[in-house]
Amino acid sequence: MLLQSILATDCGSTTTKAILIELVNGEYRLRFRGEAPTTVEAPFEDVTRGVLNAVMEVEELSNRTLLDGDDIITPQEGDKGVDIYVSTSSAGGGLQMMVAGVVKSMSGESAERAALGAGSIVMDVLASNDGRKPHEKITRIRQLRPDMILLSGGIDGGTIKHVVELAEILKAANPQPRLGSDYKLPVIYAGNNKASDEIKKTIGKQTDLTLVENIRPVLERENLNPSRDKIHDLFMEHVMQQAPGYKKLMTWTDAPIMPTPGAVGSLIEMIAAKEDIAVVGVDIGGATTDIFSVFQGQFNRTVSANLGMSYSICNVLAEATLENVLRWVPFEIDEKELTNRIGNKMIRPTTVPQSMDELKIEQAIAREALRLSFIQHKSFAVNLKGVQKERTISDAFEQSDSGLSLVDMMDLDLLVGSGGVLSHAPRREQSTRMLIDAFLPEGITQLAVDSIFMMPQLGVLANIDQQDLAENAHKAALEVFNKDCLVRLGTCIAPVGNAKPGALILTGELTMPDGSNQQVELQQGELLSIPADYEAIKATLRPTKGFDIGAGKSEEISTIIYGGVVGLVFDGRGRPFNLPVEKDERIEDLTAWSNAMNEYPLESAA
Amino acid sequence: MAHAYTPGLKVLQRTTVDKERRLPLKGDVLVAAGKTVAPDDTVARTYLPGNVQMVNIANLLNVDAQDIAEVMLVDIGSKIKEGELLAETKGLFGFFKSSAVSPVDCVLESISDITGQVVLREVPMPVEIDAYMNGKVASVLEEEGVVVSANAVFIQGIFGMGGENRGDLRVLVDNREDELTPEMIPDDVKGAVIVGGSFISLEAYKKAISVGAGAVVAGGFNYHDLKDILGYTLGVAITGSENLGTSLILTEGYGRIPMGNRCFELLQQHNGKFTSVNGSTQIRAGVIRPEIVIPLTADDSMDSRSDKDTTSGISAGSLVRVIRAPYFGDIGTVVSLPSELQQMESETMVRVAEVEIGGETLVIPRANLEMVETI
Fold first, then answer.
1. CB-CB under 8 Å, B328 with A344
2. Which among A44, A148, A259, B131 is least buried, having the fewest CB atoms inside 10 angstroms?
3. Who contacts B266 (Cβ-Cβ below 8 Å, separation ≥6)?
4. Mean pLDDT highest for which of A301-310, A319-328, B301-310?
5. Residue B308 domain flag
6. What is the DSSP code (8-state) at residue B223?
């Protein structure tokens, strides 16, 4: 079915965002967007109210009728209504899960990966070997009240004792669902198939138990998709049914409602697969930071639950330390004054930076929140994959934190940022700097931000699998992602290595789209910005002795690179990157880098 | 007329305060609707299921899990005393027996022939809920609790720590700009809710704890001193379960910020009255702010002034407080609310208000303003 128009909403915990996509001259484009406060909580307690308000804003802006009273008109009739309506949701705290596995670093880790991949927040990972006594585990389960539990453990046909022990702990704890007490807590069992009968016997009556294929059928193979799919099903069947207004919302949508991070993750997976590239996506919010990555075709997602820019801003300070936050602040500030300011942002989370100093402080904290979240991501995204893949026995024993991280910054092709502090920074140069400073890309990496955070809506579109809709919906997701969703910032070129300050570390020639040539000379400690639009630029880059730009130490590269709204950024600050320890020198460097990038108004740089 | 919504904190001189007093599980409600209650009166009671102990009999007795039934001496559902035999092997000719005893008083809940474990449930733990404040039982929530209602002064703080507390209100400063210093805190404020002005230092708060004050109310406190009290850096503003003895309620925020005028006046006016406070704070979806409740008695003169609903929105003429640097803590009057987005010094484009502060008209993001009392 040819889709002329698509309406998609994302019901976030505070704001519901609606976008209208239309087929214009044979291609799908974002036409209008509207937003309204989410209405899950009192006094409304009906999510559809916020959806209708957001859609009404789109109606007003587009000057076309989308609603008939309290109904979205589908399919489109003349210029009224839209062909399909889809939605994602993270309202009411999103999907909150607890997972359990026999060995924390094996089935526990696989279960966590499945739950995170499905878009949930993992409240705790329970394991036979997690060091807690049974009564401590039971107390913890009772306290948590998750939406759903994923229980795994044991390879198929192996010993059943340990996984049944976990089930006995669950039974003794008798966990209650978070939303309402008039239904049984959904539990997914994805462990040793030989234990299925015992698991049913142990918790079958007390919980709403579903059995799926083992998440780890043999030691060296992980099988996450059956669990992930079941989590999505149960999210729709149980969790969404309990949230205020969702029963109604589910009847409106033409495809299942997805948890917001699940939708974003699947979009990033699709982009990476389609273009055969390595991608990192980050969404930094008020309370949490989500990181998604695809390296070597393997998808991973992590949620840093308490690293965010408002509700949990003080936790960034606590985890990063004041010293690490201060190192990004390009002026002197009293420490007591700074911590009080950050504390006040936590207790009044909706305030915005009015002065330039406030903005710089906020962006300093963002760098640390992103850096810490990425460290967590790298330690979790180890050499295992989400779909079935053979691994050798020797690999299987390396799958804990000590496992080799899949994240290789030299391989990274595209880094996408989203979330208020990145998407709404007054200057795109600021987003660029925050991404580079926090993620420290190596070699050649494209940078982008999600202009208005529409990845969730595009993700749910990319997931439509009804035959008559799928092809056009997927096309729409990709086209809008490339043309309207991403703001291409440019490309970061960062040679790996270190030399004395001022030493030449890279030379190069750029053939710009207009045919003109430009020479580049990059020195150690320097940040160089060259304006260039998002067009193909022929580049020949020659790192000096000992430096690597992607082809190996001292090896030249000839390739095509792209500019963007910021352009090309040559980062000569070295990898690994270290800021000067001495304060005056540090402030001098920070100011020089800001000025080189036009990051802040010149007169306000200290 | 243009107006903007901003979540102000409630400072109400007379309102009906309804407090839901609900058990964590279903149980017994001990008071009837209409009954007058005092803060310490128990209004509902229940029993939480006892803690669970798991004992691996198969391991202890060195028997196979599937043979566990043969060694068990007690049946499921049996009440067992601490030290009582749970299981015993037959031994060899009656000798060399292995046995397992119960570590606690409990009921045997289950026996597993797969894991060889038994689950022991300790005796249920009683949980009682009190009335929290002087008032009347407005309604009974069948098997769950009650709603206690009172005519009261109701003040919300911006941040607090420590849970519920109650005591006589003691205002220890003369005006709202004054810092509450250790010397100002006398030794006879045990159990009292003491009030300072703009600031309380760590030393003064420690003094309040040492003399056993029930709670401290002040304008501000230093964020980094929280660590000294809590033993950890407060990462997210979710509090209430700290065992501090002396709850802390900040009406304005972190730093030295004079307490709101009306808030201070109300506290002064009711100096000496019995007051209930709760420091619990949750700044997330479903926000919970700390509170001060001063139930009024029939003797309290009725004040004809009506309370302006500070949550309705800011409009021209509203008295507002700036809640972010560079004008943090300043109070002014809204002159106008331009509808166009305006660029700030930070180059952020925002909706703004023009606010007159100290004779000067300043342009401030609406998101950085909070409504304050106008009467």
1. yes
2. A44
3. B11, B13, B153, B155, B294
4. A319-328
5. no
6. G
Query: What local confidence, expressed as pLDDT, does residue B235 receive?
Result: 87
Residue numbers in A near B117 (CB within 8 A): 165, 168
CA angle B150, B152, B157 (to 5 degrees): 120
Q: ipTM value of the model? A: 0.85
Q: Does A344 touch chain B (CB under 8 A)?
A: yes
Could you tell me if B110 lies within 8 Å of chain A, comparing CB atoms? yes
Residues B239 and B156 in one domain: yes
Could you tell me if residue B307 is inside a domain? Answer: no
Q: How many CB pairs (< 8 A) connect A and B?
A: 169
Taking CB atoms and an 8 Å limit, are A346 and B65 in contact across chains? no
Task: Say whether both A574 and A519 belong to one domain.
Answer: yes
What's the whole-number mean pLDDT along residues A76-83?
Answer: 92
Give the residue-averaged pLDDT of A189-202: 95
Put simply, the answer to whether A161 touches B65 (Cβ < 8 Å) is yes
Q: What is the pLDDT of residues B138-155, one digit of tens each?
A: 999 998 899 999 999 999
How many residues does the structure list for chain B? Answer: 375
**CB of B123 within 8 Å of any CB in chain A?**
no
Residue A346: list chain B partners with CB under 8 A. 236-237, 283
Residue numbers in B near A358 (CB within 8 A)? 324-326, 346
- B103 and B150 both lie in a single domain: no
Residues of chain A neighbouring B253 (CB-CB closer than 8 A): 340, 343-344, 347-348
C-alpha–C-alpha distance, residues B357 and B344, integer Å: 17
State the DSSP string of B88-145: E---BTTBS--EEE-SSSEEEEEE-TTT-EEEEEEPPEEEEEE--SSEEEEEEETTTE
A334-349 pLDDT, tens per residue? 999 899 999 999 998 8
Domain count within chain B: 3
Q: Is B303 a domain residue? A: no
Q: What is the pTM of this model?
A: 0.85
Assess whether B100 and B76 both reside in one domain: yes
Q: Helices A313-320 and A356-380, interaxial angle, to 10°? A: 70
Q: What residue of B is the nearest CA neighbor of A353?
A: B346
Question: Cβ of B223 under 8 Å from any chain A Cβ?
Answer: yes
Over residues B222-227, the mean pLDDT reads 94
Same domain, A86 and A98: no
Of the ranges A115-124, A271-280, A383-392, which one carries the lowest mean pLDDT score? Answer: A383-392
Q: Chain A contact for B350, CB < 8 A?
A: yes
| Boundary (domain end) residue, out of B263, B295, B327 | B295
Q: Is residue A254 part of a domain?
A: no
Q: What is the pLDDT of residues A527-567, one digit of tens each?
A: 999 999 999 999 999 999 999 999 999 999 999 999 999 99
8 A C-beta contact, residue B291 and residue B312: no
Tokens found for residue A179: 């939303």
**Do residues B63 and B146 share a domain?**
no
Q: Which domain holds residue A36?
A: 5-91
In 10 A of CB A445, how many CB atoms?
A: 28
- Say whether both B276 and B139 belong to one domain: yes
Query: Do residues A19 and A48 share a domain?
Result: yes
Bridge partners, B3 (sequence order): B315
Nearest CA in chain A to B282: A347
Same domain (yes/no): B75, B27? no
